[in-house]
Design a protein that fits this description.
Jelly Rolls; binds 2-oxoglutaric acid; single chain; alpha+beta; 9-stranded mixed sheet; 43% helix; globular; 4-stranded antiparallel sheet
Amino acid sequence: MLVSTLQHVYSILTESGSRLDKLAELYFDGRIDALAQLPLLTPTATEPLNPPALDVLQQSADYETFVEYMRDNKPCIIKDLTKSWPATSNFVSECATEGPDMAFVGSQHGHLVAPVYVTTKRDGNCFGALPRPHEIEQTVSEYCDWWALHHEIALEEQPDPVDLHYLKDWNFSASFPADNIYSCPSFFREDWLNEAVGSYRFLYCGPAGTSTRLHADVLQSYSWSANVVGTKRWYLLPPQYTYLLYDVFGQRLAPHFHSDTELEFELLNMFPGLKEARKHAYCVVQRTGETIFVPSGWHHTVENLEDTLSINHNWLNGFNLTYAWAKLKTELVLLQAQMKSERGDCGDAPKDEWVKDEGAAASVRRAEQDTLAAVGDLLLLYKVVAHQLEKKDIRLLRRRDLITIETMLTGVHEFVEDGDLFGVRSRTEYIGAELLEKVQGRLFIIRELGI
Ligand SMILES: O=C(O)CCC(=O)C(=O)O
């Protein structure tokens, strides 16, 4: 049984069928080591890419056409949504090929503070087992100064600078009205997340060579991203292949799909499923004026091929709420099980009676932090739904949305009812009496309507 399991694992990892001779060697070396070693035996040549093409919609497409992409959870590109935006006239250099007009951006918003991700040239260009970019805060003026210097150096053809700065995830709408820059395209109008909390709207600005590592968006949200100016390359992987992106232990997510030749070997050894993942990834080059729709749970990487300024939203609505709740519930159930197993037979005994050593204490601390974050997400989802119920005449919501809302809220109530995270046992304590009462009242009406 063990041999056949290992054979199976080996053939999945190597795509080359079973090699009992190799397996035997590795098996007797110790199972865990063997699993880590298996991919080292594979040839590391990069598979040629044969990416499927993405559908392109025109600005004039009707809303129902776009709804199909949300419903099918399928990406697409939409043309020309940025034409009339103030940012398109103000934030772009007179000669558009020169990219964003950072002098103008600095003159208007220089005093504001934004998050900036600093990478070394090597990991900025995507590769491998290097440290994550670190986040600093800079004023927009400081960032514009860095930008000017960076371009001066490039003009003088000096050696490449070591650091690349990427201003990203800047929630600018907290500081000045978003209308000064853009208007949200009507394709993305069913945005329950920003209607409730308003803070998932971002500006990105980075020179050629900056990039964003492999990730899927927060809370299984959709995202749209519009290039005001510049070109990005995206690799997007459908969610059914997500498992291919992890290391052999299913723990660590790969940093990127690709690496330069120097680190390719290292990357594929650490993440052997990447070779297969690349075959299923969509590769999209998004140009000035184009907007990409990224569906729920699709992992992606993004590289700026030119100096690029873009606007992006994350959003949730009745089409992807089910994914958000399903993923969160799985996380919470696993965390609950982990806490139970840490506690063992100690039942409700105080923590210092069942936390036996440093290792156990660290693992409990991590589980508590993860639980805290997951409970925060649960409350966020709850507020998003509550906001829709409060704001709208329930009869105006789609029947399908009502079913989704009802299912999710019932699920949350049941989960929280018998949940014992942190030993807090009542729903009221989790959600807050006032919000709970409001939502239960609306749920009652939904059920009366007979969905
Ligand atoms: O443009 C980028 O660098 C990242 C954007 C992104 O990941 C997104 O819109 O989901």
